[in-house]
Amino acid sequence: MSKVVHRPLSILVSVPAGMLAGAIFKRIWRVAAREEQVPSATDARRGWTEILIAAALEGAIFGVVKAALDRGTAHAAHQLTGTWPGDEGSPSEREGTK
């Protein structure tokens, strides 16, 4: 039952989460690189190093936001249904506490 709740909840928040991750990346890039524009992979004026660093940073930010989203929606589904939507049972069951 909890997977039935988790899936639509996850889909509902995925678009705003992607937008949030993009905004976080742009803000971090502006501060770190001291430039307004994030590099595009096809920008001939940018070097390989800059492009790959930007891509790695963007991927890390999106990964963290996605993990937080997945964990949060799983927790919400658990709160609503009483069962954990994942394959391993609830976090308290895995840790031996209930």
Summary tags:
mainly alpha
* Sheet of most strands: none
Helix content: over 70%
Oligomer designation: single chain
Mean pLDDT: 84
Total number of strands = 0
Task: Report strand %.
Answer: under 5%
Instruction: Report the span from N to C terminus.
Output: 20 Å
> Which runs of at least 5 residues are low in confidence (pLDDT < 50)?
none
In N-to-C order, the SSE pattern is HHH
Question: How many helical stretches?
Answer: 3
Task: Note the overall shape.
Answer: elongated
- In total, the number of domains comes to 1
Structural class label: mainly alpha
CA radius of gyration is 18 Å
Describe this structure in words.
The chain is mainly alpha-helical. The chain has one domain. Helices cover 72% and strands 0% of the residues. The chain has helices at residues 2-33, 48-81, 91-95. The protein is elongated, with a radius of gyration of 18 Å.
Give the gist of this structure:
The protein has 98 residues and is an all-alpha fold. It has helices at 2-33, 48-81, 91-95. It has one domain (2-82).
Architecture blueprint of SSEs:
Elements: H1 2-33, H2 48-81, H3 91-95
Helix pairs in contact: 1-2
